[in-house]
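Note to self: keep these together.
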Amino acid sequence: MRTDDFDYNLPEDLIAQSPLKDRSSSRLLVLDKETGEYEDKIFKDIIDYLNPGDTLVINDTKVLPARLIGVKEETEAKIELLLLKDMGGNAWECLAKPVKRLKIGTIVSFGDGLLKARVDKILDEGIVHVTLVYEGILVEVLDKLGTMPLPPYIHKTLEDQSRYQTVYAKNLGSAAAPTAGLHFTNELLDKIKKKGVNIAKITLHVGLGTFRPVNVEDVTKHKMHSEYYIMDENTAKILRDTKENGKRIIAVGTTSVRTIETIMQREGNYKSSSGNTDIFIYPGYEFKGVDAIITNFHLPKSTLIMLVSAFAGKENILNAYKHAIDEKYRFFSFGDAMFIK
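Structure:
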């Protein structure tokens, strides 16, 4: 299976540069994975496709203002760090630019020394391990010095930083937003609950994989970076009851999909679980825990378009994407959504 099999041509003007004023007014392409048929809707219409007893699984991770611009202490050369993973004890895995300016022991200073990072290890692909030095609470320091780590294809400045968070974001730890959830408003979630649909929470902290393209020809040779996840017993019971009652489990976003499928692989059922996952889902994968997916439109040749192709069929996905391009849907993080049923 070749990476090029998941390529498509996207006009640059269809890459959404900013969020819509009303989160739930995005467009929604509804795709039937069995027939390949699709229809054009508005995101708030999602409620019409949810039935009493179904369960929506949302990822309540919260994005850190993890993009930091600083200088090397000895030369004042500009250095950018993107905090990716908390390794404990103030040790962090980061993406550094330009990494060639760093060496073991380099000190990078942010905000006139309010925060410092000492380089402890330099790995491949721009990854470094650092120790952070600061006074007080890290989150408060990052709120002062950091900005939201928007993807590189977004060139406009985000005026309201909260628009790169879901309305239910709670657990800090992500380097990127679980963007399918950005379409939900509290009002829409309340209407969904009133219809009798369960809303269950999991956490997966989105990490490096979001920023990495697949750069091997053979899909099976690609290595995913691991991300931390947790599902508590309350969510696990809701999911077990949902299936026992013959209802659907609908994952909001590929992060929810990867969490559920990881747990089903490891535990054989919906059980409380936590750990790191590097699950890579591509065509040929047999889904064990998810019945439908709410998702955004994904980058060409990315692991995410491979995941939805595994779920709905590559031909169905590429046909739906072609329709979305013809109809001028907005793509990627701040773009429109799909419901794959």
